[in-house]
Write a structure and sequence with these properties.
Elements (H helix, E strand, L loop, with lengths): L7 H9 L3 E6 L5 H16 L3 E5 L27 E5 L11 H6 L2 E6 L10 E4 L6 H9 L7 H14 L10 H11 L5 H10 L3 H13 L1 E3 L4 E6 L1 H6 L10 H6 L6 E9 L2 E8 L5 H6 L4 E2 L3 E6 L3 H15 L1
Parallel strand pairs: 1-2, 1-3, 3-4, 4-5, 7-8
Antiparallel strand pairs: 6-7, 8-9, 9-11, 10-11
């Protein structure tokens, strides 16, 4: 049974009624999780709230998103008056802090994933929104403080989750929001370049290795590659430098489903999927306890990497 969203008015009312607020983006945070969390936190701080943000360490390219000073160490927080989860499809995405979420006096879930499980006491989920940053913009607009730094963070989240306005989740409203955010005088070219056109030397080396190992399956309909911990070590990189790979795989001619797997450790494999029209990769990810969107989803599989690949292919075969 799918949950029902509260109104934006209700969400604003609940936020306004609390003073000590903890915000958290999903595990292994991306541009949208970081942008939405830090921007909302900064706006609440401007309202006089006591705000802390929980985010796992992230890649250097995301340093372009302002207000990282609001990030707190997990150990310093035991509970919150209000805990707001952002860009998290379910409680499992709050890896490591679900206990703090549960012990908080009031919980809220703001998201845009179709697979969202409505795990908060209050929920606002807009699955047709391009990003959680777009949802946060609607929440703030005309009601909560906004400035250039907040706008820059939301713009970063918006362009990250739309792939620079290329994904089909981009709507006329998304472009309208982008225009509004640009009107705050943000360095939009710098943000775009940081997220899409800049990479460390080690990230480039890892990408090269991933592309070299890529193969096509199922008459060319499926492309897959994988990266091991050993590969990452050889390139002197980290697993924070892998998120661009899947989008390059997706762009190969004739490919309907793209898969990228990497080892987090010997028994934990992170899998990312992208699908063309008519191929629901969210349903694929859900087979392994993950989720996301119809065309972009992911999961973690507890198995050695070769076995994880076989498990994924067995499910793809059923889909095809």
């Amino acid at each position: 049974m799918k949950g029902k969203s509260d109104s934006l008015e209700k969400i604003r009312e609940i936020i306004s009624a609390h003073e000590n607020i903890v915000l958290c983006g999903h595990t292994n945070p991306d541009g949208d999780a970081i942008g939405a969390s830090l921007s909302l936190a900064s706006s609440l701080e401007k309202m006089g709230k006591n705000v802390k943000v929980l985010l796992e360490p992230y890649g250097k390219k995301y340093d372009v998103i302002p207000n990282s000073r609001l990030i707190a160490e997990k150990d310093t927080i035991k509970e919150a008056e209000l805990f707001i989860a952002l860009d998290c499809g379910d409680m499992g995405r709050l890896q490591g802090v679900a206990d703090i979420f549960r012990s908080s006096k009031c919980t809220m879930n703001i998201d845009h994933h179709a697979s969202n499980s409505f795990f908060g006491e209050y929920n606002y989920v807009e699955e047709n929104a391009s990003s959680t940053s777009e949802v946060v913009f609607k929440l703030l607009q005309g009601h909560f403080p906004m400035d250039g730094e907040i706008a820059a963070g939301l713009y970063a989240g918006l362009i990250y989750d739309t792939g620079g306005f290329r994904h089909t989740s981009t709507t006329p409203f998304t472009m309208q929001v982008a225009g509004e955010l640009m009107s705050y005088g943000i360095a939009y070219t710098k943000i775009y370049n940081a997220l899409f056109d800049s990479r460390t030397f080690s990230e480039m080396k890892i990408m090269g290795k991933a592309f070299h190992k890529a193969e096509r399956y199922f008459d060319g309909k499926v492309i897959c590659t994988s990266i091991t911990m050993e590969d990452i070590e050889e390139c002197k990189g980290t697993n924070k430098e892998l998120d661009a790979i899947i989008n390059y795989l997706k762009g190969v001619d004739e490919v309907k489903i793209a898969c990228f797997l990497y080892e987090k450790n010997e028994m934990d494999v992170k899998a990312s999927f992208r699908g063309n029209d008519g191929y629901d990769v969210c349903a694929l990810a859900q087979k392994f306890g993950g989720g996301g969107h119809v065309k972009a989803a992911g999961c973690t599989i507890e198995a050695p990497i070769e076995q994880a690949k076989k498990m994924v292919f067995a499910e793809i075969e059923k889909m095809l």
